[in-house]
Write a structure and sequence with these properties.
Number of strands: 9
Order of helices and strands: EHEHHEHHEEEEHEHEHHHHHHHHHHHHHH
Radius of gyration: 31 Å
Number of helices: 21
Number of domains: 3
Structural class: mainly alpha
Largest sheet: 3 strands, antiparallel
CATH topology of the largest domain: Rossmann fold
CATH superfamily of the largest domain: HUPs
CATH class of the largest domain: Alpha Beta
Distance between the termini: 76 Å
Strand order of the largest sheet: 3-4-7
Bound molecules: glutamic acid
CATH architecture of the largest domain: 3-Layer(aba) Sandwich
Length: 484
Amino acid sequence: MSTPGTEAPVRTRIAPSPTGDPHVGTAYAALFNLAFARKNGGQFILRVEDTDRTRYVEGSEQQVFDTLRWLGFSWDQGPDVGGPAAPYRQSERLPTYRVVAERLLAEGRAYHCWCSTERLTQMRERQQLLKMPTGYDRMCYGKTREERAELPGFTEVPVVRMLVPAEARISFTDLIRGEITPPQPDDQVILKADGFPTYHLAVVVDDNAMGVTHVIRGEEWISSTAKHLLLYRWLGWPEPQYAHMPLLRNVDRSKISKRKNPAARLKWFQEEGYLPEALVNFLALMGYSMPDGKEIFTFDEVVETFDFARINPVGPVFDIDKLNWLNGHYLRSLDDDAFLRAAEPFLPGALTAEDIRTLVVPLRERTKKLSELAEQLDWLAADAVEVKPADLAKHGLPAPDARTALEAFAKSLEELDPFEGAQITATLDRVVAELGLNRRRSFMTARLALVGKPVSPPLDDTMIALGAQRTVHRLRQAAAALEA
Ligand code: GLU
């Protein structure tokens, strides 16, 4: 697809702010920006927007790189890989923004404002009280420093504001949403008293300097786009095209935030044991649909089919059940070695390599996320387990039979030598047959006695992992507890 009206090679970007744990929205934006760039043989840029020094968090930039790479994403230009428009950190580009702010001042598009924070707060409170539209009241506009200094609420170091014409009414054609006219902007600050640009100035200067042709970002930026387009027009720079992605939402349809939803943190997915392929598939599914409607697909398939018309602008709900389902699918498609490699960080410490292979591999079939493995295997490291009467009633034998079976199992297993898979199963089968009990319920009774829950690897593997002594001891303990 060529971009209508321009021959420029496609360039997209994400512009995360290093303000803490990387947000899931950053991965979501990266996915679609990268897919569109790849589809068009273009480039994908990562730029760090670190101009808000009050919210800057040390180390957060590296975490963004790490989590995006974990997802399999790569960028053609960025702070860590360099590129023709370096530097890619806004804090390293300050002189560039100052030059542009000076130009806008000289051309009458911007003006200095010396209003103190207190004065601006009072102004806003009064506007709210009188139910007036909020926005800067232009007290400083048209005044020299000396004139302004005579008036109340003056500070020494000014900011620079855009002089937004009344009824600017900027419209644009969004690639996902069609024609949009955001609300009238007010006189936005573009250069702060600390000499740093605000997001609005920096984003325009950088997108232009980096030759960004398509800005694909969250819908919360729609109203900012009006300010950005004004700046492009004043500066005579080519405007990029915009696509505003739907916001990811909680089940109650509120915006996903780190305060409300742990899944807003990208690292949460790593901690919980989701595979990167599953998360990429899940994020793509939030808003994007495949031509054939299938739900399981790879990033490359998103690239092949990419079309803004396939993005649904209505905020997709973050459906963890769907993610669990997808992750289960991806876990089951791993071979034994790959599954064990992925599982390793989640396993309880006490496992031998032998245990790991026999116990963990069978769990793959019923694991939705790898963090469940620790709980599924906690019985192995535990000193003792407890049989819950409700579990016994549901899955096991009635108490008197349960006691008989557990004692008989313990006695026969105690004499077993060697303590190995086929012999163990044969022994258990023989005991069940002799006692004339239900095999499934008898085995489940033993399982509850050994692991304290109705789910475990095959019974012989469970017993081998525990060893003969602990197996016999737990069976007897459970039998004794039933007697009490
Ligand atoms: N720094 C903004 C953010 O953190 C970037 C918004 C944009 O893509 O223009 O989301």
